[in-house]
Design goal:
Elongation Factor Tu (Ef-tu), domain 3; Rossmann fold; 289 residues; six-stranded antiparallel beta barrel; 8 helices
Length: 289
């Protein structure tokens, strides 16, 4: 009994609502049998530079769905296995899977040659149950990580949030900046963009900042700061009615709505006036606080 496992298969990049349907199904089924549920996934996302969630955020989201343990595998260890070899060597012999859950667009084996239908066939021969979970759709559009990436590149964080099932977030350490925001009366926390943010449209966003159990309204500029001669991508967040030293700490910034594109102003006075306008929009706009 202790070796039996219920396994959810997939990359789960972003852990969007379609992924959550798979994860909840696997978790509920495992609970009904008194077994533990697992996720088997890759250590790296297979589309270089285009992942939606950092490892720790991904782990949290998966565990929120009731999954007992996450098993990470290096892609190079299995990339040359045929679909049959993957089922026999990984699912049956290594994982000792009792049942597996996947989405209907799941692919596996060398070059992703295996389909969900083939997984059902091979697993049946090996005594492993397979549950294929239908795709989720919103307004007729399939919920997928690819679709969400497109929304983020357009700055459409509101629609991306619908597909994700939560507000898209950045979790990064707060770094010391040039303190220009403080000089003009709008102190900011500064975070360096990781690879997961590389495709998010540059501009100003209405955001929510979380730390120490508190939730604070904020305004965030994501980009290269052209007015002050920025030379790298960064995230600068002004937290409304709060000025606290967060240097060296990991802070979550959740993106609620796109306000405007990042532009270069003639000088700091013009920048200051625009920041004040952006803050007033955030203070009065009826978005999720």
């Amino acid at each position: 009994m202790k070796d039996r496992k219920i396994i959810a298969l997939g990359n789960f990049d972003g852990v969007h609502i379609g992924h959550r349907k798979i994860l909840h199904s696997a978790s509920s089924y495992a609970d009904s049998l008194g077994l533990r549920s697992f996720v088997w996934t890759f250590s790296e996302v297979l589309r270089k530079g285009w992942f939606l969630t950092e490892r720790d955020v991904k782990n949290e989201l998966i565990c929120q769905c009731g999954i007992g343990r996450i098993l990470y595998e290096e892609f190079d260890n299995v990339r040359d296995l045929s679909p049959y070899e993957f089922v026999v060597h990984i699912l049956k012999k290594e994982l000792r899977a009792d049942a597996v859950f996947c989405g209907e667009n799941y692919s596996f084996g060398k070059n992703g040659a295996g389909t969900a239908e083939e997984l059902e066939k091979i697993c049946s021969e090996q005594g492993i149950d397979v549950f294929v979970v239908p795709l989720e759709r919103i307004d007729g559009e399939v919920v997928s990580s690819t679709a969400i990436r497109g929304m983020l590149s357009d700055g459409d964080v509101k629609r991306a949030g619908l597909f994700l099932g939560y507000d898209y977030k950045l979790r990064a350490v707060v770094e010391s900046g040039k303190r220009i925001g403080r000089e003009i009366g709008f102190p900011t926390i500064n975070q360096r963009i990781g690879r997961n943010m590389a495709f998010l449209r540059h501009g100003v966003y209405q955001t929510r900042t979380l730390f120490d159990g508190g939730v604070y309204k904020s305004v965030t500029n994501l980009g290269v700061r052209p007015t002050v001669g920025g030379d790298y991508e960064s995230v600068e967040t002004h937290i409304l009615d709060c000025d606290i030293d967060l240097y060296g700490r990991f802070v979550d910034v959740e993106f609620l709505d796109f306000v405007r594109d990042e532009i270069k102003f003639d000088g700091l006075d013009d920048l200051k006036k625009q920041i004040q306008k952006d803050i007033e929009v955030r203070r009065t706009e009826r978005v999720r606080s």
